[in-house]
Amino acid sequence: MAGQTRSLRPRFQTARATFALMLREMSSTYGRSPGGYVWAILEPVAAIAVLSFIFSYALRAPSLGTNFPLFYATAYLPFMMFNDIATKMSQSILFSRQLLSYPSVTIIDAMLARFLLSTFTHLMVFYLVIFGIHQIYDVRLIVDFPTVILALLSAAIFGLAVGTINCFLFTRFVVLRTVWSILMRPMFIISGVFFLYEDVPVELQTYLWYNPILHLTGMMRDGFYATYDATYVSVVYLYLLAGSLLSLGLLLLRRYYRDLLER
């Protein structure tokens, strides 16, 4: 009985530390600016509105369906979910450096807190935006819920994996933060937010296939459009890559954790 009690203490301590860090993260991220969580919703809404306004004048209809906001939302939202989770995870040590000096708080606690809060926030934003589009435009949705859930889960896990490896890289090599920021700008363009994979010339499809985010956006659209079958999407490729990055990131953080705190 005493052994079971001792084994539960680390779990309780981790849960308590993670919850406390989530509250701190929520307060610092959304509590300091007027509007707080409202901005987390308004930002994607504004981006989708701008994209829809611009391309509705250039094109008669999107590549799928007839509703521009839904077409862009089904790719923009998973992309931003991945990107925001990866960014928040990569800053875990920088954000919680002072707290990590306490033995009761570990790097896993800090990363888990940021991951959970970012994931819950984006799930809420996703639901509100899609629900809003459905209500405003009276869009008839035939949603494949298992595929949509898998796409959301994949976006969160891939963001976790990339953010974990970047947590080590960005803390160890500061210049990589700028390099990553530059790389993500064209990544937004080539990740299927504006187009479908099938619309691209075959010569380019060969190279674009290796972009894992394109698999996320394709999977999400597959879940919302009954007439669309994203046959190019490979869940195996996505999770093998995510698993490799996550494992490598955790190994590097475990090995150099103390060195990184002193930087």
UniProtKB/TrEMBL annotation:
InterPro entries: ABC2_TM, ABC2_TM_bact-type, ABC_2_transport. GO terms for cellular component: ATP-binding cassette (ABC) transporter complex. It is found in: Cell inner membrane; Cell membrane. Its main location: membrane. One of its GO terms (biological process) is polysaccharide transport. It holds the Pfam family ABC2_membrane. It is a multi-pass membrane protein. The chain crosses the membrane at residues 36-58, 70-90, 111-137, 149-175, 230-253. PROSITE patterns: ABC_TM2. GO terms for molecular function: ABC-type transporter activity. Residues 35-256 form the ABC transmembrane type-2 domain. Keywords: Capsule biogenesis/degradation, Cell membrane, Membrane, Polysaccharide transport, Sugar transport, Transmembrane, Transmembrane helix, Transport. Belongs to the ABC-2 integral membrane protein family. This is Transport permease protein. It comes from Litoreibacter ascidiaceicola.
